[in-house]
Amino acid sequence: MTEMNTSIVIPAPPDRVWESFMNTKQWAALFGGVLVDDQPETPWQQGSARILKIRPFRSARPTSVEIQVQACERYHLRWTSRAPGLAATRFFTVEPAEGGSLFRNCEHVTGFIPRIAPRFVTRALTRTHEGFNGAFRDSLAEMR
Predict the structure, then answer these.
(1) Which end of the chain is more exposed for a tag (fewer CB within 10 A), N or C?
(2) What confidence category does residue 128 fall into, taking pLDDT thresholds of 50, 70 and 90?
(3) DSSP for the chain?
(4) Are 143 and 20 in contact (CB under 8 A)?
(5) Spatial separation of the C-alpha atoms in residues 22 and 138, rounded to whole Å
(6) What are the backbone dihedrals phi and psi of residue 126, each rounded to the nearest 5 degrees, phi first?
(7) pLDDT by residue (tens digit) across 101-118?
(8) For residues 20 and 76, what is the distance between their CA atoms, to the nearest angstrom?
(9) Whether the predicted pLDDT of 58 surpasses 70
């Protein structure tokens, strides 16, 4: 299993951070690999399924991945997904912190690809997570 646990303090209150994060229309600009949410107007709910069109690695062609929402409550979103060669659990949380809000962006990946290429997967996850965290923080700063 490959795990990526990242966090960043965002200088905004938790409600504002969460509301902005749940606006999936902006994910294509922030989340390097996510291109489209098939239901951008539909609220996220536990037990629901969504299709995200993603580019899992920089050079990969876009692919559709079905995610199953495991939890969606105030300040916490967790989903599971499967793609050829891997399965993932991803979760995001927001909590109050000194200076604003602590945003956590974590992913646990299993399967064939992480077993044969763990360093490649770790580098790809690091680039994706850190890139999203920084872009998300910056987008909130621009909204001030």
Answers:
(1) C
(2) confident
(3) -EEEEEEEEESS-HHHHHHHHT-GGGHHHHSTTEEEES-TTSPP-TT-EEEEEE-SSTTSPPEEEEEEEEEEETTEEEEEEEETTEEEEEEEEEEEETTEEEEEEEEEEESHHHHH-HHHHHHHHHHHHHHHHHHHHHHHHHT-
(4) yes
(5) 16
(6) -60, -50
(7) 999 999 999 999 999 999
(8) 13
(9) no
